[in-house]
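Researcher: Sequence recovery benchmark, item below. Answer with residues only.
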């Protein structure tokens, strides 16, 4: 039976948002640290975001090709400005505050990088001629130039500091590089070089980031400090067992043992209150959206459309994997939100923006 991918994406996106709102209500219910107003705030932004999604699904997506470099440059300027005059919170300088509403430029920069790389890679493929090219020329134009495009926002975000989001920029680059047409031997060689250079990165990260990496290996080395959140998260998820403890009945959640449960660790709330079956339902919804996004990328005719579909689906799936891995203790805690579930205005709207573009591309004669 042939189904329109757009309908599938839309239905399962609604399901993820609904699960997120139920979990967020519980996470902020009688919470002495987090106001219950964040739930209503998320509801309002869900409505706004869905209107944005529907609008984008009917827009000519090629307009983003024309404005790709303009958007990319604008986001770089915002990242510079936030380092100069942004709002400090939780030891970082990542936000602008406008009329009491926080805005995080790094979330928007992920989107503009996808557009920028999408235009660059699609232009490179369409401008290829029959004349042979040297390996050095291939590496410069098809690898190092887009790498420089990625490193600019990546390093600015790292400076905030925000290690998790900065690594997502590199993830976007790798996903789109694999579909750029560059030979795999160059890509694999580049990745091997990056792996060899990773130990040198230890000397440039912040002390608290080093602590997070160490407690990932052994949370019990600092159970009341850097390891506290991950220990409580694993307790919450494990105590949910198969069926969960029931909505509003999670002890780790309701008794305030679990920090950041409305943002980075909201998956713990779902695991504790809805158990293994609840988490599998959410993961299944994500899986269907990601699968449909990849099918859109496979069938869309335009190279720019294919590239941005790969970039958006790739970053969406990477955030899901890292966040869930972080909650389960399988990844270091790097401050990555769970798309469309965690509280966060900018990240929520950017995720819906990406879904709207995928819906738009799904109309380009793409079906199961």
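Model:
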């Amino acid at each position: 039976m042939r189904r329109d991918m757009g309908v599938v994406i839309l239905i399962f996106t609604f399901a993820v948002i609904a699960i997120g709102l139920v979990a967020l209500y519980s996470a902020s219910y009688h919470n002495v640290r987090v106001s219950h107003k964040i739930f209503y705030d998320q509801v309002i932004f869900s409505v706004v975001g869905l209107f944005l999604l529907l609008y984008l699904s009917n827009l000519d997506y090629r307009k983003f090709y024309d404005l790709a470099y303009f958007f990319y440059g604008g986001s770089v300027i915002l990242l510079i400005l936030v380092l100069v005059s942004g709002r400090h919170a939780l030891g970082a300088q990542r936000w602008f505050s406008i009329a009491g509403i926080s805005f995080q430029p790094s979330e928007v920069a992920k989107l503009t990088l996808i557009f920028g790389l999408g235009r660059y890679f699609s232009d490179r493929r369409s401008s290829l001629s029959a004349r042979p090219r040297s390996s050095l020329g291939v590496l410069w134009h098809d690898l190092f130039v887009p790498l420089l495009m990625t490193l600019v926002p990546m390093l600015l975000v790292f400076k905030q500091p925000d290690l998790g989001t900065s690594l997502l920029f590199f993830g976007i680059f790798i996903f789109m590089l694999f579909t750029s047409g560059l030979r795999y031997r160059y890509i694999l060689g580049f990745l091997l070089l990056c792996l060899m250079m990773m130990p040198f990165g230890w000397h440039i990260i912040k002390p608290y980031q080093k602590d997070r990496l160490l407690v990932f290996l052994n949370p019990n080395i600092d159970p009341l400090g850097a390891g506290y959140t991950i220990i409580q998260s694993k307790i919450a998820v494990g105590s949910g067992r198969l069926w969960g403890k029931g909505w509003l009945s999670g002890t780790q959640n309701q008794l305030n043992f679990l920090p950041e449960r409305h943002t980075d660790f909201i998956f713990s709330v779902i695991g504790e209150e809805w158990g293994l079956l609840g988490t599998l339902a959410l993961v299944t919804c994500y899986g269907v959206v990601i699968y449909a996004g990849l099918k859109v990328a496979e069938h869309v005719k335009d190279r720019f459309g294919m590239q941005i579909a790969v970039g958006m689906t790739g970053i969406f799936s990477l955030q899901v994997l890292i966040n869930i891995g972080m909650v389960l203790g399988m990844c270091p805690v790097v401050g990555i939100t769970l798309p469309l579930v965690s509280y966060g205005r900018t990240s929520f709207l950017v995720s819906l923006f990406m879904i709207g573009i995928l819906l738009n591309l799904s109309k380009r004669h793409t079906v199961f």
